[in-house]
Amino acid sequence: MTAEVDNTQVVAAVIALLAARGYDDVTVDDLAGATGLSRSTFFRRFGSKDDVVFADHDRLLTQLTEFLAQTTREPATALHDAARLFLDYHIGRRELTVARQDLIRANHALRDRELLLIPRYERAFAEYVARAYPDAPGWAVSATAAGVVAVHNSVVRSWLKDPSVDAPAELFGQVGQLTTLFEPVLAPGVRHAPKRVLVASFDPGATVDEILVAVRRDLEN
C-alpha cells in the first residue's frame, strides 16, 4: 500500500469520526485509535486534528509546484492542467470531499484554516505565471493566479452540488476564458495574429480527390 493511499484512508477515517461525534468531542487519542496508529505515530505523521483534516493539501501543493516547475507546455495549457490535478483528486474521492466540506462548514476554526490555504495555491500559480510571462505587470500575475484558483473552486462547488455537472469540461472552458482575457496584459509585447477560418463546401458524395480540390480552392480564395 502506498503512503498516499494510506494517508487518504486515514484522513477519511478521521473525518468520519469527527463528523459522527463532533469535532470538539474527539481527542487525538481517539483519532489515533480509530486509524490504528499509535499516538506518537499519529502526531509524527499528522500533528493536530486540524492538520489531519487538511493533510492531503501539503502533498497536492508539492505536486502542483513540481508540475509547474517542470512543465514545458504552453502557459494557458499548463495552468489548466495544473488546476486539473486538483479537480481529478476531488473527482476520484467524492465521498471524502463531501464529508470534509460538511465538517468544515460546521466548524468555524476549520473554515478559517481552509481560507488560509487559498493564498498558498495562489502563490504557487503566481510564481509560475511570473516565470512564463516575465514582462507582465505584477497585478496581472496575481490576478491570473487568483483567477485560476477561483475558477477551480467554483467548478468543484458546482460539482459537489450537482454530480451531473461535467466538471472537467467546465474547468477547461473557464480557465480558457480566463487566460484569453489576461493574455494581452500578461504578454503586452506579443502581437497575436488573428485566427484564420476556413470554410469549405462540397457534395456529400464527393470523392477524397474532389474534397481536396474544394479545400484547395477555398484556401486560395
Describe the fold and architecture.
It is a single chain. The chain has about 220 residues and is mainly α. It has helices at about 5-20, 30-35, 40-45, 50-55, 55-70, 75-90, 95-105, 110-130, 140-160, 165-185, 210-220. Helix 2 (about 30-35) packs across helix 3 (about 40-45), helix 6 packs antiparallel against helix 10 (about 165-185) and helix 8 crosses helix 9 (about 140-160). The chain is elongated and about 75 Å long. Mean pLDDT is about 85; it is low at about 1-5.
Biggest sheet, in brief? none
Which whole number gives the mean pLDDT? 85
User: Termini separation (Å)?
Assistant: 62 Å
Order of helices and strands: HHHHHHHHHHH
Question: What is the overall number of helices?
Answer: 11
Number of strands: 0
Please tell me how large the radius of gyration is. 24 Å
What percent of residues are in strands?
under 5%
> Helical amount among residues, as a percent range?
over 70%
Quaternary assembly:
single chain
Structural class by SSE content:
mainly alpha
Give the overall silhouette: elongated
Low-confidence stretches at least 5 residues in length (pLDDT < 50)? 1-5
Architecture blueprint of SSEs:
Layout: H1 3-21, H2 28-35, H3 39-45, H4 49-53, H5 55-70, H6 75-91, H7 94-105, H8 108-132, H9 138-161, H10 167-186, H11 208-220
Helix pairs in contact: 1-7, 2-3, 5-6, 5-8, 6-9, 6-10, 8-9, 9-10
